[in-house]
Design goal:
- The protein contains 16 helices and 19 strands.
- A 6-stranded mixed beta sheet has the order 13-17-12-16-14-15, sandwiched between helices. Strands 8-9-10-1-11 form a 5-stranded mixed beta sheet, covered by helices on one side.
Length: about 500
């Protein structure tokens, strides 16, 4: 049965009621090992550096090839990885990691604390996904090969979750330049047939249970409209390329497939480039927010698999979600008046990734904004081209984004704080920076919640973006597959980690 998020329910309440199932041991009860898992991916990686921002595909491949100190399961809970345990000391200024013994790199060399030091020092000197955590480390100590001690300049509550969420995959110090990726993950690099597939072979010396497969084959699926067909025809076993949601009921009826749906902390939102007139005018941003029929977007673009996005953080992180800080109510007459008052007459370009359901939502949003007299031209690009244009070059008026907003509300700083490495939209508010800083400076949950509530109130006032929808996870795979991170492996491994997968 598919999980429908009914539009009449408040997202926060619904997400609280629909908690995911706990991990199942059936992933480990399937006898034997061997075979291969064929996974559809939406495009190719630019490279195999797992810590660089703006390469979504490399980050999907990373858990197969590399390991981190700590990681997150699909529900945002911390899991040990290369660090089998850790201690937080000195009021949150010091983190002591105890590393696993006997871990080997894919080339047979031993892993140790020096590799952790090398990786973190490398990341401190360049842009990275985990920049917000790594930049706060002022001293790294490695008293022995199995211990790493990180000293922060001041307590920062999201440190561990940001290290895990950002990946911070550990790289080998003995290979400062790699022609092929070498990690400690469950699979080793095999071959890359560009434009077609990437083959990873099982790592027989992996330090955790698994892998139970001989190989994982990542198949490039540029045309998302054909993903369902390829699954039904048995050409693939699993997909991380999004399937058009109108096809999900058909897949649910196919006996050879399994479809799992559930809540997530992912959101779809429209981001404004405040560097471009007239979007620097809050009246224009308010007009756009008031023009949007979010319920219609969920019905027609998500086919009921979601809920309208009304607030400025994910309701799945319930302690930090401010349900009172929400978008202005839809009022297209008021929206037209605001545009007239602001003198906004130019055409805007909406640059989106050519992926479902974002492409469907882009067309609907264009039609809704036309009803208030705002002309919008939609430009759909392949994912990596969209990343280059929007994330790297910041060449857009409007864009649609979809992605995780967990596990910690500190990621609001990553998106909207003016002091971070990712100020994509040209938005800055010192009061917001102060609220976000206060939320990260204490481990007291009530104090943190008050700070993040205030941050969401400021975002609701300034409207640097328009929240559109709260997304759900839709996981599709062939019925003979067991142990995927959103299925039997839930709570045991991180997303995209196929170490527990078996094929019957």
């Amino acid at each position: 049965m598919r999980l429908l998020f009914r539009l009449s329910l408040v997202p926060a309440l619904l997400l609280a009621c629909c908690q995911p199932r706990g991990p199942s041991s059936s992933a480990l009860s399937v006898s034997g090992r061997g075979g291969e898992l064929r996974v559809l991916i939406p495009s190719e990686p630019r490279a195999f550096d797992p810590n660089m921002p703006g390469d979504e595909i490399a980050q999907m491949l990373a858990p197969s090839l590399y390991s981190a100190l700590v990681t997150l399961d699909t529900d945002g809970r911390l899991l040990p990885d290369l660090a089998e345990s850790w201690e937080v000391k000195d009021g949150g200024r010091t983190y002591l990691f105890h590393l696993r013994k006997g871990v080997l790199w894919h080339d047979g060399r031993p892993f140790g604390s020096g590799d952790v030091r090398f990786t973190l020092e490398r990341l401190k000197s360049q842009e990275s996904i985990s920049h917000e955590a790594v930049r706060r480390i002022f001293r790294i100590e490695t008293p022995d090969d199995g211990t790493v001690e990180l000293h922060l300049d001041e307590p920062w509550a999201p440190f561990l979750s940001t290290l895990a969420w950002g990946g911070t995959y550990i790289l080998p110090r003995h290979l400062r330049a790699q022609s092929n990726p070498v990690g400690t993950g469950p699979f080793r690099f095999g071959k890359w047939l560009r434009g077609e597939r990437i083959v990873l072979e099982a790592n027989p010396r992996f330090y955790r249970p698994g892998p139970f497969l001989d190989r994982v084959i990542f198949l490039v699926a540029l045309d998302s409209s054909r993903v369902a067909e390829r699954l039904l025809r048995g050409e693939a076993d699993h997909t991380v390329t999004r399937i058009p949601l109108d096809l999900v009921p058909k897949l649910e009826r196919a006996p050879e497939l399994r479809v799992l749906t559930g809540p997530s902390n992912a959101r779809i939102f429209c981001l404004f480039n405040l560097r471009r007139p007239p979007l620097g005018d809050v009246r224009v941003r308010e007009a756009i927010n008031r023009a949007i029929d979010r319920g219609d977007l969920v019905r027609r673009a998500l086919f009921g698999y979601g809920a309208p996005g009304l607030g400025f953080y994910t309701p799945s992180v319930a302690w930090a979600y401010n349900g009172e800080a929400h978008v202005p109510p839809m009022d297209r007459e008021r929206a037209r008046a605001l545009l007239a008052e602001a003198g906004a007459r130019r055409e805007l370009e909406l640059v989106i990734p050519d992926l479902s359901p974002v492409d469907e939502m882009g067309g609907l949003l264009r039609a809704q904004l036309a009803q208030i007299g705002l002309a919008v031209r939609v430009t759909a690009l392949p994912l990596n081209d969209w990343i280059d244009r929007v994330i790297r070059r910041r060449d857009f008026d409007l864009t649609l984004m979809s992605g995780s907003h967990g596990p910690d509300p500190e990621n609001l700083s990553f998106r909207f704080g003016s002091q971070t490495a990712n100020p994509n939209v040209g938005y800055a508010n010192p009061e917001l920076d102060a609220a976000l800083a206060a939320g990260a400076a204490t481990v007291d949950l009530e104090q943190r919640a008050r700070s993040y509530y205030r941050a969401q109130e400021i975002l609701a006032q300034d409207l640097p973006m328009a929240p559109l929808a709260e997304a759900v996870t839709v996981t599709v795979f062939r019925s003979n597959v067991r142990g995927l991170p959103h299925a039997e492996g839930r709570g045991l491994v991180s997303n995209y980690d196929f170490s527990l997968v078996r094929v019957r």
